[in-house]
Sequence to fold (339 residues):
Amino acid sequence: RDEQACGVILFRRNIVSLEQVVALNGELSTLSQPDHPVVIGVDQEGGRVARLAGICTDVGPMRSVGHLSETDPRLPFSVGAMMGRELAALGFHLNFAPVVDVDSNPNNPVIADRSFSALPHVVARCGADFIRGLQKSGVAACAKHFPGHGDTDTDSHLMMPVLHVDKSRLDRVELIPFAAAIEAGVASIMTAHVMFPALDDEHPATLSRCILHDVVRKQLGFGGVVFSDDLQMKAIADRYAISETIALGLRAGVDVFLICNDVALTAEAIACAERLCAADSTLREALVAARRRIGALRSKYVGQPDAPRLDEARAMVRCAPHVRLGARVAAMAVAADAH
Fold:
């Protein structure tokens, strides 16, 4: 309300129970202005990244969905649709999922079973169908982490990963699932805090116009919202002041900056963006374009939000068909671990 932030993202620290989430999201929805509805998002990927674990239907890792999809091609759509129905009932508008990184490096400390597969075409098929299911249920999807975090051996929460592959390799592997996601109509894409020297030897993808404008917008033709990954991750925070991050990110093509742990830093970033755009016509144009894309997402997935209803949430979340579907995926994960 005070800073006119685009929206909020809930983490496990914000989540206690179904009843509490419904009440919190209902309260957040009351802060919405007619021309500025609050977008409420969450990381609910399934597997080990599930902020609503124990509240929403438990789903195993997307690796298991990828395996099962070989005999049940409809499964990724079904899982996405199930997640979307539950999230919508709880009052969420945006799910920062799916991960469409290709799990091509067994030493990757951060992606691993969050990915559908080590094969680009499997990730592309599963990711696109998951997106279709999630968005058909009324929740915006976010394909992450562009242009690919799967072949790194470093966690960008802790330091800056560098991926030394040429452009043709990116086109053959990392970009295939993102192209499929865009074809499926994905509402948003999240950047990777990863250096790709073949594309930009100065800045990571989050702050690179060569990557976000030339590849995302021009090569792949994406017209939706580009989110940064959390700017407080050490890959960015240890190397750039917030003013430099905002300036470079706006020039690169970031539409929404995520700052996930520090409200004061959020206020500083907003003030910094205002100063930069007042002094630079190029950045003002970037801001206008960002607001247009954000407005389109809000119009489709938020509208003029009503507070979620507790009775509807209780009827939808962890209903019997959902629990059966989640159990199938979880059983696959257990079998894989045993093997």
About this structure: The CA atoms of residues 231 and 279 lie 23 Å apart.
